[in-house]
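Researcher: I'd like a structural prediction for the single chain below. Treat it as a standalone chain; there are no partners to consider.
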Amino acid sequence: IVGGYLLVVAFWNGTFNFMLPKEIATYHSPDAECSLVFEQMGDPAWPFGPADVRLTLKNYDGKIIERISTQVFNDGGSASEWNIAAISWNDDAVIVVLRACEMEDKEVSISYNKN
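Model: Treating it as a single chain, here is the predicted structure.
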């Protein structure tokens, strides 16, 4: 019975955990028209793999404008606010620079229309 329980727990954590987002931080544009949500999707790949992350741009009503999925390579560690090196809010796009200990800085641009 104990072995069956452990198998179910291992299956649940390994199979479905990748779907659960964990919000790391939310950043707001200077004019408060948009927000950018930084999330980690599940756990990092075991043992030293990347963490799947998602950047979601929302308007002031909370409607999703764009959602970008990518990875950060933190030597098997979870994503954190440290992974956001810079955010630039432009008139038609937000530019996010992602960093991690095992990757070059990665620029992600998310376009939007304020109208």
